[in-house]
Amino acid sequence: MKILAIETSCDESSVAIVDSGFHILSNVISSQIDLHRRFGGVVPELASRAHQEALLPLIEQALEEAQCVIEDIDAFAVTYGPGLSGALMVGLSCAKSLSLFFEKPLIGVNHVEAHIYANFMGQKAILPCVAMIVSGGHTLLAKVSGWGKYEILGQTRDDAAGEAFDKVANMLKLGYPGGPIVDRLAKQGDRKKIFFPRAKVKGSPLCFSFSGLKTAVLYHLREKKEEEIKAAIPDICASFQEAVVDVLCSKSFKALEDCGLGHLAVGGGVSMNSRLREAMMDLGEEKKVQVTFPGKNLSADNAAMIGGLAYEKWSAGIVDDLELEVDPCLPISNWVK
Questions:
Q1: Are 66 and 40 part of one and the same domain?
Q2: Sequential DSSP letters for 60-116
């Protein structure tokens, strides 16, 4: 069962060919970082145009790397939410056209749900588990009983963790995207030098809030002279990063305890953060809990995870028709009874 998958939810165009859910035959990605860098963030209209230009060459490259022709494809999968509306429409329109022309099934996939699935590509799924998805647009905890069987345990009430990284990097004039830069500079700093707050959400112990942390960093910078800030950038980055990591770790392991489970699956772009991986693995070893991360090529947005999850939906008899529409705010929902 070969699925050609398309991912265009934000600022990466990706096409992959996946066989039977986890054999990745190709997974090609075109990043738009250079396009958006001078704006300090993703410009939706520019992202949509870049997806239009990139998709057909990526499809040709994916087929070539997989040593396939388009007639070998059994179904077409595509992200239809959540994400940027215009960007999603480019990918969905392309997938619909391919499905219509070659008379093959169309399978719409939830981008966040696919980030969970990325943990299990190339290895046998150990379910149930608690999944933590942490990226530029999403921070949430979910109990995963099986594919298509989810319970949302908590999510961010304001900024996502990755968004907070980018905004703090912008305050420090470090460049874009901010997450990898902050991670790199934090290795040179003292993470105990400055104490930044760890927010608690009243009445919702597994929900997240990072706006207060971002504001605390802003107020800290306002009290310093420019020369002091430049000298202290590694310490600021390390201390800020530690505040984020502390919250992500404490809430994830509380969710494991509440659910009585022993497997934490972490996904999303921020899962590539070196300090987060280190802290999660250390805690997992201490508490004798299994902690897994996707390979780095599957942590950021990619089409292979879309194709993998599409296979699970196809196996459950779930396909879509040409009436499928994009949903920029698509929540994770159950599709297996």
A1: yes
A2: HHHHHHTT--GGG--EEEEEEESS-HHHHHHHHHHHHHHHHHHT--EEEEEHHHHHH
**pLDDT tens, residue by residue, 167-209:** 999 999 998 889 999 999 999 999 999 999 998 888 899 999 9
Residue 265 contacts residue 294 (beta carbons within 8 Å) = no
Indicate if 149 and 283 belong to the same structural domain.
yes
Per the structure, the complete domain to which residue 308 belongs is given by: 2-117+298-315
Position 22, amino acid: F
Determine contact, residues 12/31, Cβ cutoff 8 Å. yes
List, for residues 250-285, the tens digit of each pLDDT value. 999 999 999 999 999 999 999 999 999 999 999 999
With a CB cutoff of 8 Å and minimum separation 6, the contacts of 285 are none
Beta-carbon count within 10 A of 133 CB: 29
Q: State whether 270 and 162 are in the same domain.
A: yes
- Same domain (yes/no): 283, 303: no
pTM: predicted TM-score of the whole model, two decimal places: 0.93
Q: How far is CA 191 from CA 183, 196, 213, 240, 281, in A?
A: 11, 10, 15, 8, 18
Domain count, the chain: 2
Question: Are residues 158 and 111 both part of a single domain?
Answer: no
First to last CA, the chain: 24
- CA separation for the pair 95, 138 (Å, rounded): 25
Amino acid at 288: K
Judge if 102 and 156 occupy the same domain.
Answer: no
